[in-house]
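Quick one, tokens below. Sequence please?
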């Protein structure tokens, strides 16, 4: 239990620790936060994660306690134990006291996210994860801006070559700074992730959803005309407005402003296309927010 009286979810592994293979090879990889891609080999009996300069894995953030959590390598399994931190330790978005780590688990300490990797060839697993980081945003687990921009360039060329429709949506969270200031950055991160998950379930397989900026998202809609893009943009707006965004026991009201653009013969490249859409997003925000302009 933490010194703040926070009730934590104790997550227990299904299999007994004694049944697990010897944890000879395991590591943590930073997938969100400072030092993105850094690997920590878990080859010692114990590691402390915290804000203290004496911590084995130091995270210099206000949301992180001086001694936040502890990793224990028993030789048969690797455990993560919260050390009474103020803001808690999360595994796969669940608040925990103690947990037996499994390959692929996501560990959130403050605003930093680690991925736990283990296996016969940890170097291969690590390099695969680094490759994934070139395309996926570590917090929201949707595509990142780099991947989106590269895909947009290809799709513009394809649409121009075959004379097919192509639409672009840019949307961002209204007054996101107020969300962070009122509820804290951990709550803001949670809102971003919840929004990404909600939208991800509403797009087609051929659509591309990405985190385009801090609180800004983008969706590429191949073979969708302007009328249908506007309709989809408004669906996103309504979905967000009606959704219940929660962080722990607090409900956070969220709305988005949406800009729409559809490719025309006059648009020559990515920069022009994005600028048109971004101008419409700005107009939506200037017009009162929680609206669609296109």
């Amino acid at each position: 239990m933490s010194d703040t009286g926070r009730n934590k979810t104790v997550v227990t592994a299904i299999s007994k620790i004694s049944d697990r293979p010897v944890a000879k090879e395991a590591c943590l990889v930073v997938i969100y936060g400072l030092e993105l891609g850094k690997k920590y080999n878990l080859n010692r009996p114990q590691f402390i994660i915290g804000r203290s300069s004496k911590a084995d894995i130091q995270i210099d953030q206000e949301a992180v306690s001086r001694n936040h959590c502890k990793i224990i390598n028993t030789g048969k399994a690797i455990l993560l134990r919260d050390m009474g931190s103020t803001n808690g330790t999360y595994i796969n978005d669940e608040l925990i006291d103690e947990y037996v780590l499994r390959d692929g688990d996501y560990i959130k300490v403050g605003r930093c996210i680690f991925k736990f990797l283990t296996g016969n060839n940890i170097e291969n697993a690590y390099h695969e994860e680094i490759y994934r980081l070139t395309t996926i945003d570590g917090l929201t687990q949707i595509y990142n801006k780099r991947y989106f921009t590269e895909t947009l360039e290809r799709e513009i060329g394809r649409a121009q070559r075959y004379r097919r429709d192509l639409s672009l949506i840019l949307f961002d969270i209204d007054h996101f700074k107020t969300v962070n200031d009122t509820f804290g950055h951990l709550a803001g991160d949670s809102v971003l992730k919840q929004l990404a998950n909600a939208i991800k379930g509403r797009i087609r397989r051929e659509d591309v959803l990405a985190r385009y900026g801090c609180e800004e998202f983008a969706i590429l809609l191949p073979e969708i005309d302007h009328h249908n893009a506007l309709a989809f943009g408004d669906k996103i707006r309504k979905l967000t407005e009606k959704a219940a965004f929660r962080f722990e026991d607090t409900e956070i009201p969220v709305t988005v402003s949406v800009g729409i653009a559809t490719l025309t013969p006059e648009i020559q490249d990515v920069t022009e296309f994005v600028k048109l859409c971004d101008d419409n997003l700005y107009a939506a925000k200037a017009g009162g927010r929680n609206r669609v302009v296109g």
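The chain has six helices and 18 strands. The first helix runs from residue 122 to 133.
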